[in-house]
């Protein structure tokens, strides 16, 4: 028998089947709950149970601690209803009516802007278009049934090809294939768009954008969308990488800065060698933001890439720089092995 769920403060209600996660049921009802990994790792879907009981399912114990469970918190992507519920969660505005589709696409072109980064340009069938918000991701559906998530690097206005930036993870089933076996013209299948990492256009706050490695992909989509829309909010973009060569679209980010007075690009390198002759900022990318900003209370932060970077930014900005918790937006690139089975 299904349970009745009420969301607060919106007052929205939906039916939830005991075998579906609360996130699945909310999405089926057309409601827009914040989420990222859908796997109990990133914490984007964390909410508070006001009344009722849930079964928490599988999740990472660092993402939802025993103390948080005791305080009524849950992860909606893993939680199943046991009774009628009232849940406190801040719903997302925007992106709500975009259909999630499963589509074929053709690999039009593969570029390698760095030794370990491939850029895929994917072409949809002539009769299809993918509606999406800049910054969302898609799941590539592999032939063996595995799914791998990749952020869309193009903005919606520039949709002749869907663009993915894929870092080579040695031993990784999909990225190894991209680097060793994938040929142009082959057909892939994907499901999307997914996720709630996109520009909050109803705000006029200045933005800090942070990418580590291929976390640049959704940031690229967001920036290109914002610039196309004539957004005049201040944007400060920090791109962190181990070495300068890992900043694989450095010139593009520099061009955004040269052409837009409200855009600043700050590359940050953690392991430059003497041969690199790197004269720019060094260290961890979140630390560069901490060094530059004493107070983030009036900002929005968009962070994407390695989970360790996203988590360091989240914790330090909220705890030491007064960033409001609900002004931190992120997609952490968890590997499938880090997620629940
Ligand atoms: C929302 C989201 C968006 C993402 N966007 C991007 C993006 O834009 N660009 C990008 O590059 N990545 C992105 N990722 C990461 C991406 O989805 C993949 O996880 C990544 O590409 C690795 O996939 P793979 O199939 O190559 O490796 P996998 O097969 O998942 O293997 C990864 C590593 O784990 C090892 N491994 C596999 N199984 C086990 C095991 N059981 N025990 C121990 N080790 C194991 C492998 O040898 C390998 O080293 C995103 C992730 C998420 C969640
Ligand atoms: S923990 Fe639920 S979406 Fe990531």
UniProtKB/TrEMBL annotation:
It comes from the Bacteria. Keywords: 2Fe-2S, Iron, Iron-sulfur, Metal-binding. SUPFAM superfamilies: 2Fe-2S ferredoxin-like, Ferredoxin reductase-like, C-terminal NADP-linked domain, Riboflavin synthase domain-like. InterPro entries: 2Fe-2S_ferredoxin-like_sf (IPR036010), 2Fe-2S_ferredoxin-type (IPR001041), 2Fe2S_fd_BS (IPR006058), Beta-grasp_dom_sf (IPR012675), Cbr1-like_FAD-bd_dom (IPR008333), FAD-bd_FR_type (IPR017927), Flavoprot_Pyr_Nucl_cyt_Rdtase (IPR001709), FNR_nucleotide-bd (IPR039261). The keyword ATP-binding does not apply. It holds the Pfam family NAD_binding_1. The keyword Transmembrane does not apply. Its cofactor is [2Fe-2S] cluster; FAD. This is CDP-6-deoxy-delta-3,4-glucoseen reductase. It comes from Leeia speluncae.
């Amino acid at each position: 028998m299904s349970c009745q769920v009420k969301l607060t403060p919106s007052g929205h209600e939906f039916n939830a089947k005991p075998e579906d996660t609360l996130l699945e049921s909310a999405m089926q009802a057309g409601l827009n709950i914040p989420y990222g990994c859908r796997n109990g790792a990133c914490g984007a879907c964390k909410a508070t149970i006001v009344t009722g009981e849930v079964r928490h399912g599988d999740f990472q114990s660092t993402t939802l601690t025993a103390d948080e469970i005791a305080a009524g918190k849950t992860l909606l992507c893993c939680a199943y209803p046991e009774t009628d519920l009232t849940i406190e969660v801040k719903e997302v505005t925007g992106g709500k009516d975009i259909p999630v589709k499963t589509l074929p696409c053709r690999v039009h072109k593969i570029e390698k802007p760095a030794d370990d980064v491939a850029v895929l340009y994917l072409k949809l069938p002539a009769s299809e278009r993918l509606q999406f918000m800049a910054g969302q991701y898609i799941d590539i559906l592999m032939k063996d049934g595995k799914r791998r998530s990749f952020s869309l690097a193009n903005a919606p206005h520039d949709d002749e090809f869907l663009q993915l930036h894929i870092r080579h993870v040695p031993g990784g089933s999909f990225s190894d294939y991209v680097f060793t076996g994938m040929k142009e013209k082959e057909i892939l299948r994907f499901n999307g768009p997914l996720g709630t990492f996109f520009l909050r256009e109803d705000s006029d706050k200045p933005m800090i954008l942070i990418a580590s490695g291929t976390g640049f992909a959704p940031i690229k989509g967001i920036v290109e969308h914002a610039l196309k829309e004539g957004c005049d909010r201040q944007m400060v973009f920090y791109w962190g990488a181990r070495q300068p060569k890992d900043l694989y679209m450095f010139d593009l980010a520099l061009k955004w800065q040269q052409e837009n007075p409200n855009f600043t690009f700050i590359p940050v390198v953690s392991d430059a060698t003497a041969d690199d002759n790197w004269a720019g900022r060094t260290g961890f990318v979140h630390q560069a933001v901490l060094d530059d900003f004493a107070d983030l209370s009036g900002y929005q932060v968009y962070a994407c890439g390695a989970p360790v970077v996203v988590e360091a930014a989240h914790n330090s900005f909220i705890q030491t720089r007064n960033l409001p918790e609900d002004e931190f937006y992120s997609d952490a690139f968890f590997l499938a092995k880090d997620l629940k089975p």
